[in-house]
Design goal:
Layout: H1 4-9, E1 20-28, H2 32-50, E2 53-58, H3 63-69, H4 75-84, E3 87-92, H5 106-113, E4 118-124, E5 135-141, E6 151-155, E7 161-165, H6 171-192, E8 196-201, H7 209-222, H8 225-228, E9 232-237, H9 238-247, E10 254-257, H10 259-269, E11 282-284, E12 289-291, H11 310-322, H12 326-342, H13 356-366
Parallel strand pairs: 1-2, 1-3, 3-12, 5-10, 8-9, 8-10
Antiparallel strand pairs: 4-5, 4-11, 6-7, 11-12
Helix pairs in contact: 2-11, 2-13, 6-7, 9-10, 11-12, 12-13
């Protein structure tokens, strides 16, 4: 969990957290429509216990929106988020695996348009559940790398097709992601009495792009020894990082990575705690935060009412933490932890037989 001290240290979104919050709700596609209501129900439950009031604005984005309107992320959605919302929750997006003219992932575009440069993904096992002890935060740069989507195709001299993609790593974006990763490490040091930052890269092959990422992260770490000196510093080549993460996850604390590696590492790390349906994330910028479960749209189970809402519920808590309401967030996390320890009400991804709403109701009862 990220506590009030993290928000204070890194000058997070609000100097005095407002009690009335307007939240944009973007269900997206597939099971996003089924799990996003969990976030709203949890927020409504908090109103009585923490003096918070929530207003909601339903917004559109996703493949279904593209099929209806020709735009995966309508301008109106961005305009309303900027003008009227304090934060937002995003469900899931279904993207075609082959090129569709005019279509681009709305969540990638949303991150860029709102300046959400960090994707923060805590991966933590729950004490008492029998899972391996895991407690790491993967901090993923959110705006560049291969996700800038600058690609081209051509035919070579032998008449064979070639596709190329640009991988962009900038000093500016890397400085931002290194600083927020170090701030999270400082907060964890305050809680645990120790913290380590692991910089993940592939600079042995990509000496310029990943080499720059590695160099800038180290520069930021060394820029203020009085502040950052108590934090341990490691570097890990991404392929060995994957190996070690599964073999000895207890070795990792805060991991910072370029966009693509961070995406792969955080999805893979979800297996350490049981399911993608459990892992939350927050897309964080200087002025806005969007909570987003790490799972996809899961078209194979969409409409069956059995998707796991816990990633959305924890993402809602994470959103609240970055908005300056850590006590409310902690209430959510405690209720989810109790559901996990009891291990009675759970969806099929966790070998249970309960519905999405069954799990939501159980967590609400524990709040």
């Amino acid at each position: 969990m990220l506590s009030r001290s993290f928000i204070r240290q890194s000058a997070r979104l609000y100097s005095s957290a407002p009690k009335t919050l307007t939240i944009g709700l973007i269900p997206g596609d597939g099971i996003g429509k089924e799990v996003l209501p969990a976030g709203r129900q949890v927020l409504d439950n908090l109103s009585s216990s923490h003096g918070l009031k929530f207003n909601y604005i339903d917004l559109e984005a996703g493949w279904g929106t593209f099929e209806k309107t020709g735009k995966a992320l309508p301008d109106e959605t961005i305009d309303i988020l900027k003008a009227e919302c304090n934060g937002a929750l995003f469900g899931a997006v279904q993207s075609p695996t082959t090129k569709v003219e005019g279509y681009s992932s709305p969540i990638v575009a949303l991150r860029k348009k709102l300046g959400l440069y960090a994707n923060v993904r805590p991966i933590k096992s729950v004490a008492g559940t029998g899972d391996r002890p895991v407690d790491m935060v993967i901090v993923r740069e959110n705006t560049e790398d291969l996700y800038i989507k600058e690609e081209r195709s051509f035919v070579d001299a032998n008449g064979k097709r070639v596709a190329e993609a640009i991988k962009r790593i900038s000093e500016t974006a890397t400085e931002k992601i290194a600083k927020i990763a170090l701030q999270i490490a400082l907060q964890r040091y305050d809680v645990n009495g120790k913290a380590t930052l692991t910089v993940t890269h592939k600079s042995n092959v990509l000496s310029q792009s990943d080499g720059l990422f590695r160099e800038v992260c180290k520069k930021i770490y060394q820029s203020d020894p009085a502040l950052y000196g108590k934090i341990g510093y490691n570097e890990q080549i991404v392929d060995s990082m994957v190996y070690r993460m599964f073999r000895e996850p207890e070795c990792f604390d805060v991991v910072v990575a370029p966009n693509l590696y961070g995406d792969i590492l955080s999805d893979g790390a979800a297996a350490l705690v049981g399911s993608l349906g459990l892992v939350p994330s927050a897309n964080v910028g200087d002025n806005f935060v969007v909570g987003e479960p790490c799972h996809g749209s899961a078209p194979d189970i969409a409409g069956k009412g059995i998707s796991n809402p816990i990633a959305t519920i924890r993402s809602t808590a994470l959103m609240l933490e970055f908005m300056g309401h850590p006590e409310a967030a902690q209430q959510i996390h405690k209720a989810v932890d109790l559901n996990a320890v009891e291990n009675q009400i759970k969806t099929p991804d966790l070998r249970g037989k309960n519905s999405t709403q069954d799990v939501i109701n159980d967590i609400l009862s524990k709040m």
